[in-house]
Amino acid sequence: MAEQFDVVVIGAGPAGYHAAIRAAQLGMKVACIDAALGKDGKPALGGTCLRVGCIPSKALLDSSRQFWNMGHIFGDHGISFKDAKIDVEAMIGRKDKIVKQFTGGIAMLFKANKVTAYYGFATLHADRLVKVKQHDGSEVELTGTNVIIAAGSDSIELPFAKFDGETIVDNVGALDFTEVPKRLAVIGAGVIGLELGSVWKRLGAEVVILEALPDFLAAADAEASKTALKEFKKQGLDIRLGAKVSKAEVTGKGKKKEVVLSFADKDGEQTITVDKLLVAVGRKAASKGLLAEGSGVKLTDRGQIEVDAHCHTGVDGVWAIGDCVRGPMLAHKGFEEGVAVAELIAGLPGHVNFDTIPWVIYTEPEIAWVGKTEQQLKDEGIPYKAGSFPFAANGRAVAMSEPAGFVKVLAHAETDRVLGMHLVGANVSELVHEGVLTMEFSGSADDLARICHAHPSLSEVIHDAAMAVEKRAIHKAN
């Protein structure tokens, strides 16, 4: 007989574990199912984000940044050294230790909140019956008054560049190279491609990034994209736009394996040969094998689970959240949906404001934004005014030897309400939240301009940008 729960959550990634823990906090009996295994072959909660995404990539970004700074910034501070080396095995080991710490932390939180964990592959059947094929081959059945699907997403594989985990890899493989590749190609100049391309470039690889679209970071503000591209090229990242790859052929054996890439760009048909290929062309909902016939849950033409504005599937008691539904595939978006759905189930108000979800790319410099871009405001016919300020005129940024980038504040031309904030520079992954908070409270550019910011601090650039909206920035010729 199936064990009964108030809530059964399928998936223990950012969306799923937040939903499970919040539902348990609200007094519900909760089960959470996850299929992932760690590098040691043991269950590892936390989803792509904790195991092979957000957390491990930031660990490698920080390690590679330290190494890069030794050769490019330390000299400005009068610090000298000889023959700096990178121990890739130690760097990967540090990353793995951090991952284990955090995946183990989710298990501890489940135990503390009395969330029952099941490890295996779940399939949703009719009447909210969930069958779990566990890793030992046995099967258990659970039923939930409510079922929350948080199955996450998988890397998109190109038909001519199948992942082999060694020479042609996705983000998982690129996090575990045993040595710095001499030549690395990346297909896709999105978040994953830029971040992991930056990691291995800083450590000494020759990196070429092939992007099929003609524009760089089209989703970001055009001025921010232009500034970031200029900085990346200074660092030696070879970013080629309008480059459409048609073939990836692996040649050689063992350590002599290479990938011959064929692509076309403005200069015509070309080929390059590299040691490793990272395919980073996006992600797709992990819905394969998730829904049994008769479950009633529908998929969109993109393979995502169909939901309404409140993450309900239209099937009584069945919800879906995170990467497997519409909206940005961002861990923090999943966090908020998980909490919102748990609270809706408990009869509380639950809501996610998609207009104030921040975006961050953790390159050097970092890129972050929230709200509308200038192009979007123009396309929608919304009158606006803009104020910007460069980090090069900020005392703290210059003292840190990180003067690249700027902050731009976009406000409604009539009401002064902040409609967007766009940032390129040091630590803007933290600074963007001033924009998020201002927008959540329907604040104005003048509100930001009249808030005292500590001096010297990077946050002063936001203050100056807000003042520049009305052409009254003190440290800039308006």
**What number is the mean pLDDT?**
97
CATH class of the largest domain: Alpha Beta
Main sheet: strand order: 1-2-3-4-5
Biggest beta-sheet profile: 5 strands, mixed, barrel
In the CATH hierarchy, what is the architecture of the largest domain at level 2? Answer: 3-Layer(bba) Sandwich
**Number of strand elements:** 21
How many angstroms separate the termini? 73 Å
Which blocks of ≥5 consecutive residues have pLDDT under 50?
A: none
What does the radius of gyration come to?
24 Å
Explain this structure to me?
- This protein is of the alpha/beta class.
- It is about 30% helix and about 25% strand.
- It contains 13 helices and 21 strands.
- The chain starts with a strand and ends in a 10-residue tail after the last helix.
- The strands form 5 sheets. Strands 1-2-3-4-5 form a 5-stranded mixed β-barrel. Strands 7-14-8-9-10 form a 5-stranded parallel sheet. A 5-stranded antiparallel sheet has the order 17-18-21-20-19, with helices on both faces.
- The longest helix is centred in the N-terminal third of the chain and has 25 residues, at about 90-110.
- The chain has helices at about 15-25, 45-50, 55-70, 90-110, 170-175, 190-200, 220-235, 330-345, 375-380, 395-400, 430-440, 445-450, 460-470, and strands spanning about 5-10, 30-35, 115-125, 130-135, 140-150, 155, 170, 185, 205-210, 240, 245-250, 260-265, 270-275, 275-280, 285, 320, 360, 365-370, 385-390, 405-410, 420-425.
- It is globular, with a radius of gyration of 24 Å.
- The model has no long low-confidence stretch (mean pLDDT about 95).
- The relative contact order is 0.12.
- Helix 3 packs across helix 6 (about 190-200).
- The chain has 3 domains: about 5-155 and about 285-350, FAD/NAD(P)-binding domain (3-Layer(bba) Sandwich); about 170-280, FAD/NAD(P)-binding domain, CATH 3.50.50.60; about 355-470, Enolase-like, domain 1.
